[in-house]
Amino acid sequence: MKILTILSICLMWMGCLSAQQNLSALVPMPNYIETQEGKAFVVTEKTQIVITDASLQFEAEELQRVFKAQMGLELNIQTGGVKGKHIYLKAEGQNESLEHYQLQVQPKRIEISAESSKGVFYGIQTLAQLLLGDAENTAHNRIAPVVLEDGPRFAFRGFMLDVARHFLPVSDVKRFIDLMVRYKYNVLQLHLTDDQGWRIEIKKYPQLTKVGAFRDEKGGDQGPDNGFYTQEQLKDIIDYAAERHVEIIPELDIPGHTAAVLAVFPEMLCQRPDTVEVKIGKTTDVMMCASNECGYEIYRDILTEVAALFPSPSIHLGGDEAVIEKNWEKCSSCQTLKEKLGYQKSSDLMNHFFGKILTTVRELKKEPILWCELNNLWMPADSYLFNYPKDVTLVSWRAGLTPLCHELTQKSGNPLIMAPGEYAYLDYPQYKGDLPEYNNWGMPITTLEKTYEFDPAYGGKFGEKHIKGVLGTLWSEAIKDFNRVTYMAYPRGLALAEAAWTQMEHRTWDSFKQRICPNLYQMMKDGISFRVPFEIFSSYVCN
Fold first, then answer.
1. Residue 92 half-sphere exposure toward CB, CA atoms < 13 A
2. Which residue among 321, 422, 449, 453 is the active-site one?
3. The CATH fold of domain 32-150
4. Where is the active site (predicted)?
5. Where are the domains of the chain?
6. What CATH topology corresponds to 156-536?
């Protein structure tokens, strides 16, 4: 019965697409769009994709794929010196960080121009959505005239994939990148280490993956519980992402969430009275000892290899959910260090711990990112857990505490990335009873509409200049394969993309509900799993 219901909705989408000439599929909504009167541009086999130079070759090939998929036409690529009724891609500046673009469709010419190849790439994604949304014209190889001038609200627009709890092979990570760039996401954070697994090869310490990457204690085959990325595989992912203008940020969570590394190096553990053998995937609530110098030395070696491998200027070091009261509070060495340093609370040792770790990060010419922790897990909280240095970018994540993080970072000068649990935790169920067998620890429901309501600046009370952007998180305790990854990510990932890209004055829920329809239909055609938003489908949506 459920399969028939999904099929009927898909057929409804197909009817909508064929019945409406101007159905918009633009997600995220551009910040300026002007439809124009006049004849359409007609694409023929003689139409060429003309680029200014070879730096736009990948973008031109991306556009080739679009026309092959949408119109069945194979267009040739030419470099410069071509005039006529063609499609022109121009990168006219030198600043690759600029993401703005202009798209003009005229009867005798289509032009996508930008300061950078990145901007051209985003213009191509928008053109692809114009073809997707205007099904009748596309079926006749026509593109209606339009002018768009567009650029993002925030520079950082990302997803976090937790590949530590459940491992994803390289091919699945690439598929995820292919999907996210359609909606102008530009950052993928890989959560590579946690209690349940160590997923990155460190050549100086091969035992980290020989032991830390396998939960079945037998070194079994790669699967959701087992596996790791070699450095060559990570280079492949990084290069693949870079072509598509996606930055890969590595995350190595410390000092908590470290059972996998502590199973390999038990000498880094706190010497607490109730210490037991650490088992990967079973032991939690353990931490690196703040007073043990060997831990800092090992992580200096680890971070040196990670910094050399990842071109990203940033390294995420976690810093969240440190169970201080069960570790540093009970560790005689940590308590001695606390007294020596004149600290009042055991949590103050985070200043010492990250003081040493961040020194290494800075020496490696990297910028640190940490999860923002406050002095209470819920309100009333009123300050940071410890004194974050101003060069640390903080990520707000605890549900209900993001407005306070927003205020505190505005005062302290720390850059801020918005990932509030109530809006951006995409592992949360999407409606009541959604996959109950996998969401059984009381996670709150985050509906598509709830995610769409997210304003990263929270109305602008504390400004937004210090806000880098938005991060959607996919923690994988209950996400065991790629189909479930995309099921949890979409369609809420479409809402989050618009929150990150589009200014608030151009966003409306009623418009968004209509615009996601053809995008979800395209995902279905591509074999991408997603959650069908039954609750918003009605005759209104397809009017």
1. 10
2. 321
3. Chitobiase; domain 2 (3.30.379)
4. 321 (proton donor)
5. 32-150, 156-536
6. TIM Barrel (3.20.20)
